[in-house]
Amino acid sequence: MIVFSERRRLTVAVFAFAATTLLFLALHQTHATEAIRVRIGIGQNRFGGTSHNRPTNDIYRTGSGFSNGSAPVLATGKERFAYVTFLSGTVDASDDLDEDYYFVATRILLWQLLHNPQTRTSGIDVVTAPSSTPVDFLHVENDEWIHAAQHRWDDVMTKLRAWEMTQYSRILMLDGDTMLRLPLDGVFDDKGAKPLATKKLSNLVTLPGEAPLPQTYLLASLSEVRDSTHDFAKGLVSIHGKWWTQPYLYENEEVKRWLRRQRWEMKGWYDTWDLRHA
After folding, report:
1. Pairwise CA distance, residues 147 & 203, whole Å
2. Quick one: pLDDT band at residue 10, thresholds 50, 70, 90?
3. Which comes out higher in pLDDT, residue 77 or 193?
4. CA distance 89 to 261
5. In terms of DSSP bridges, do strands 196-197 and 216-217 run parallel, antiparallel, or are they unpaired?
């Protein structure tokens, strides 16, 4: 893996429909998880109903979005990067956040990115600010055709708001139930994560109201191995797996134990932090 050098800045960001930075504060303040429960409202959205009851007046608005006016590339030539994950209240979770599986999974991921010596990222200059940024659900006109296969995916289109974060040159979107084995420091140096020049197509037809194609673009993802034959010792960096259930891991107790262990190691780390700073 290649570590981050001094030519860049890295910010960790979280999408939550109630507050962006509030989750970071939860990692550093005693009883802050209760504040998240109050601000988010378990099983409810800002319109007073469950999140799958779509409002008719929440139309996607173009504009500055999450951009705070910062340039994606600084005057010194440093690029500004971000890790982004998404957490919403679509799932009717328990009022006890310790029993809210996706909340706990997101907290594990943040702990691994920020604190765990085996997985934390180096070169993070800014983690959070003493404020919160609301993130509205993304609904557009005539979107009744969108029917999620599972209720917990009802508001997954809100992930597209990551495109509004133009203050960063590149963003890595991580599923909330991602777990790290090693740091992600080298991901932005990978050749597959470099912007490419847009091809000039003579037969390209632009639809009415459609924006022109950008001069450069970047869309990169990974291929997931749907089996339990991987070997930790061969350098596995991350796992897309739920710590509370492993329906596709067959006769692989090593991986199952490792997934569950991350949950309790995270809790032990924060319990110790709270005791030290009480």
Report:
1. 33
2. low
3. 193
4. 25
5. antiparallel
